[in-house]
Amino acid sequence: MEAPKARYWEPEADGAVRCTLCPHRCRIVPGKRGTCRLRENVSGELVAAAYGRTIALNLDPVEKKPLYHFYPGWTILSVGPNGCNLGCRFCQNYASSQLEAPTSHVSPEELARMADRPGCRGVAFTYTEPLVWFEYVMDAARACKARCLSTVCVSNAYLEPEPFDELLGVIDAFNFDLKSMDPAFYREQCGGELEPVLGIIERAMGSPAHVEVTNLVIPGQNDSPELLQKLARWIAERNPRTPLHFSRYHPAWKFNAPPTPESTLQRAWKIAKEAGLQYVYLGNVSVESRYADTCCPKCGAVLVRRSGYRVEVAALSGERCAACGADADFVNL
Which structural domains are found in the chain, ordered by start? Predict the structure, then answer.
């Protein structure tokens, strides 16, 4: 299949193009690709070189994204491209995001057809960085919508506002990876900038889309009480009912720091709760249930019990607490 023409770019002198999809705004000469490795200059035109090429096609629990307040207990068909527009030195999925990996082709219509099965809620664009897979995500999401399926993006939020606003029209739920509240950390460890990330997350919070946030806690890098408090407060000031996931780091790619101590994650949980967040969770750890279960913010009833990816919907009636009737901030209808 011939790669389709990309969107969001401008021609420049000598056959080069300027990609305007993400804040990098890469200048790409003929025959080369941008930072994301997904968009290529072919004879003076930018094409979506990785259109429809996915590194995986897996039926995952929706909790694995992680999304804890979006159709709990359902599965979702997960796909992702072989590339990313950030270069996080600690990437937990570097073999697919930073290195060349095998891919297979699936058309938007075929993807939607495969997801249209009992027990499957829809499609998740995930694993690496799907937002720079823009043209395919837009087409596949529309194909899913034609079948009344849900769409999810798990993203680093490193995109320009105009294309992101288009995505808001076809994506139902996001989990954003907010890596730190330290601009220097983004520049030195990720090869990006913090402010555009915050802008996109805030934009999503102001939309009808469901939003959850994940922070990978790395020892000695982004785990100080001050940074954790700043992150939690930033979210709480915008919407204290936004679910926040603190995830355990393991040595990977160019980082060899030891795994995050569970005590550090428990401290992060406490800091976030004290900052006013209603729903805080710990991931990639074996912890007691209070760090994984969802409780009613009004009466305290356990609404959803979790053990790993095993889920029991205990006292949830649609999107409300079955015990007291309070809104429990779920998408579950």
Answer: 9-48 (no CATH), 53-288 (3.20.20.70), 293-333 (no CATH)
